[in-house]
Amino acid sequence: MAITDYFIRYLQRRDRLSDKDLARLRALRTEQVAYAPGEVIVPVERHAQRSCMMLRGLSARSHQLVGRPEERVITALHVPGDFVDLHGFVLAGLEHSVIAIGPAEVEFVSHDQLTAITEDLPHLTRLLWMATLIDAAVHRQWLVAAASLRSSAHLAHLLCEIYARLHAVGAASDHRFALPLLQRELADILGYSPIHVNRAVRDLRDRGLIRWSGADVTILDWKGLATLARFDPTYLDMEQARR
């Protein structure tokens, strides 16, 4: 499956695409690149010339702490269909890098092609803008979850969100999905120690809410997991509406 198919599903979940919109998306010239776990997909840079969409696997937005280069904070996870660094199209530079979480594959789109879209197709331009706004909404919700949920509920919220995003583009079903995160990476995301993350995973298992083996996660009780997490997918803006 081409990345544009996942991105098309991402957009069509939220709005109808015209034949002209679809034709332009399917005509995008892209460069596919595969990455090993931990490799840098997008570096910290000024005046980027391209942006990337996730094709397979996961990626993360990684921030190095000033004066502590051995430490990092992960502020976003990206799944297939996400236009990972679209904001780099309009900003002068990125203050963070994007790294592969597990094996990952992306497709790069040149900013020249994005410029042409914004000049020719106003509806598709609004949808690209929408994608960056949803990305910002997810970040805000992460802050809310971190401030209001304890460890098990916080982890439950992350699992609900990732499954909902994957399911929306057809990359997961039957409450099963792949999440190739190490406990250290989960700790970087949730802001806990690996020991606390281990306890949270064990707690969700003991409650009968999930089964987690290696990278494979199965949500055994969606209602129970969502209730614990106080998960409301409204912030993912998956209602179809004319924009």
From TrEMBL:
<dbReference type="Pfam" id="PF13545">
    <property type="entry name" value="HTH_Crp_2"/>
</dbReference>
<dbReference type="InterPro" id="IPR036388">
    <property type="entry name" value="WH-like_DNA-bd_sf"/>
</dbReference>
<dbReference type="InterPro" id="IPR018490">
    <property type="entry name" value="cNMP-bd_dom_sf"/>
</dbReference>
<protein>
    <submittedName>
        <fullName>Crp/Fnr family transcriptional regulator</fullName>
    </submittedName>
</protein>
<keyword id="KW-0805">Transcription regulation</keyword>
<keyword id="KW-0804">Transcription</keyword>
<keyword id="KW-0238">DNA-binding</keyword>
<feature type="domain" description="HTH crp-type">
    <location>
        <begin position="149"/>
        <end position="223"/>
    </location>
</feature>
<dbReference type="InterPro" id="IPR036390">
    <property type="entry name" value="WH_DNA-bd_sf"/>
</dbReference>
<dbReference type="InterPro" id="IPR012318">
    <property type="entry name" value="HTH_CRP"/>
</dbReference>
<dbReference type="InterPro" id="IPR014710">
    <property type="entry name" value="RmlC-like_jellyroll"/>
</dbReference>
